[in-house]
Design brief:
Layout: E1 3-15, E2 19-22, E3 31-34, E4 36-39, E5 42-47, H1 49-64, E6 71-74, E7 77-80, H2 88-93, E8 95-101, E9 104-110, E10 114-116, E11 119-121, H3 125-128, E12 129-136, E13 144-162, E14 168-170, H4 195-211, E15 214-215, E16 219-221, H5 224-236, H6 247-250, E17 258-264, E18 276-279, E19 282-285, H7 287-296, E20 306-311, H8 313-319, H9 323-331, E21 336-340, H10 342-356
Parallel strand pairs: 3-13, 20-21
Antiparallel strand pairs: 1-13, 1-17, 2-3, 4-5, 5-11, 6-7, 8-9, 10-13, 11-13, 12-13, 14-16, 15-16, 17-20, 18-19
Helix pairs in contact: 5-10, 7-9
Amino acid sequence: MRFATGLVLIDAPHSALNMLGIDESLADRNVTRVKTFRRGGKRYPYVSPQAWRYWWRFTLKEHFDWELSPLYREQKQVFTAANPLKYPDDDVFGYMRAFKKGGVNVTVTRVSPLKNTPLISVLPDRNSLTVDEGYASRHEGDPVPYSQEFYSTIFKGAFSLDLDAVGRFTIISKAGFKNLLTRDDLPKKRNKNNEEVFREVEEMEKLAEELGVKRNEREWLMPPEIRKERASEAIKALRFLTGGAKQTQYHTDVTPKFVLLLSVDAGINPFISDIVFEENGEVRFDAEALARRLGDLKEVIPEGAKLYLGYDTGFVRSLGWNIEEIAETLRTSGVEVFTGTVGEAVEEFVKEIEAYYG
């Protein structure tokens, strides 16, 4: 069981990347607020995990030509095609779809191999949040006042990609393990009410044969080359991450300016807890705490695996961080440390991922 884990820092010097909208609790209905949450008596701006995932999906489409799974709507439900053989985002990001028509009563669920936290501000709102007062005045009559919250902060987020789950689909009749609708789930009689479902299953079977998918009574397994490509591109996409609200006014580059990447043979992400934190209004990195944590986890860090540290020179200079000192401290964990630009760290880490698939 191998996981590609990571931490990213995104510099948001003048931004409003994920909005709450109008705060109905305020008397002034012209205040547009950013999303925040409370922790320990302080409030922190954040970007929702689904927003980050949307950016990730969009980047894979734009930079790696992923054909994204189409969205369908029935009453109050929205779902994708649930065809991970054809659509790589169904494979990596997961799905749930209920087939309930023409004698078919099956729900397929794919737990996402890619898991991520929200992007959370390192700085609380008292150190980061600003209200921009403005007026809409391009119309006849009196100008209309409005207020817009934005922030100057650094967001941190963590993720984990289950490399064994990418391209592997179970067909066990158990919640979370029924990934695909197969011929065994179809009724004996084919009619106009279930014709579409029969056709979907037949198309998936045909595609599986064309791609060389290995099939048995418990799972379908895609060829290693396809699994390797999907996993590596999912990580490579971090270099080109694109998205965020209010880009017209604030134009924020959301590509990570600092990354930590590590392979782990367990469902553990060593970067989630507060190794990056705020102290007296400054953003700090606790290399010693991370080194101790990695030392405690050495039995689940694969032999030969490295900790990849990628950074933007201008970004770390603005924080006053000394990368050489950080790297030396991290090496006391017994794990080899690679340092370079974000792009170099990602590309080197991807080589490790690709080697895992042989």
